[in-house]
Automatic annotation (TrEMBL):
This is Enhanced intracellular survival protein domain-containing protein. GO terms for molecular function: aminoglycoside N-acetyltransferase activity. Residues 311-387 form the Enhanced intracellular survival protein domain. It comes from metagenome. It holds the Pfam family Acetyltransf_9.
Amino acid sequence: MSIDVRPSPDAAKYLATDQLVWFGEVTEADAEHLRLGLPEDQRFVVDLPDGPDDLHSGIYGVRPMELVLPGGDLVPIAGLTWVGVHPDARRRGVLTAMITDHLARTHDAGVAISALHASEASIYGRFGYGLAVLTHQVDLGRGTTFTAPHLEDEVAGITTQLATMAAPGVRERMRACQLAVAADFPGTIIGTADFFALLARETPEELRDKEPRRILFARRDGEDVGFVGLRRSHKWDNARPSGTVTVGSFCGGPAARLALARRVVDLDLMGSTKLENVGADDPLLAWVGGPRGTGDLKTWDSTWIRLVDLEAAWALRHYEEDCDVVVQVEDRHAPWNAGRWRLTASSGSGSASRTDAPADVTLDVAVLGAGYLGRPVGGLLRAGLVVEHLPGTYAGLARALRTSLAPEPSIGF
């Protein structure tokens, strides 16, 4: 059965479907969340012939965003989000139809890359998305010591300033700061001004017994050089303050991050700090002496990357090592990518071209997505996710994809 995917004609019906799929509290602010979160022309729906009249069988949306690639270039991407299938329409091909539609629309728009945060880790690999970025959740005690002797002179010139995210001008400062430093942190995803407005919007329902989201800025010579979001929660234990400060993604260079980290672990009335989005190579782990210098450390998936246009995407990023490999690419959902490609990298630049030469390697397009931002993927051969026809060639490809530092985790979208 062919499943038709079309632009959403009814914002209220689209929103009601999302509310059923995600079964959260329904509030009057949800419509504003949709308005800020998704442009009207980036909302898409499926209606099965025997589906409900008042809701859609499936929905998805796309946020126009920008991604920092290895080498520092900022490129447009399609941020796939608001994906949902009506509970009565599961296992009927709705999700497959929507993802296939998304890839075709993205390709037609000339956008080479799609990205997402996965609600369930087992879903998106089969559609060609590769797990490209890992993130750590790190717990630290009050007054944790950070040791970085070669940064101290630079940190001495940095001050920190607390602001409320919803206050006038704060979200504009955040976006400007992120744009200014992003080139040094491949993997960073930057949203539009509306996306930052969405992040700053908090309803009374969301704020029950919670502090409004604060932003701690790092400043040097009167200019913002970094920031981090935080929220404190009260707790008293045996008449002693033992609250927790929950901290979001750090933005800024190493000195700015160090100044911010020292401030967030030493806030009054707090007993512990939970850092929710620390990159695999974030210097914070080195500053505390490694994983055992934390109270707890958990690892999660962050950004998943899908090469929508393999030829264009391969040429966009910088490569730290050369390679010349013929790859048989499997891609069921974007057939224009499928087939045999000669993937080369030389003096930092990459090129992908069609070839009839025998394949050195066979792999799914998801493998290239997983390594696209620099995360090591050499182990996928041992894992049985890659077939190597000429020994050693996949190792060369994996080395070319890899960057000296792991990619930066992105904020959820």
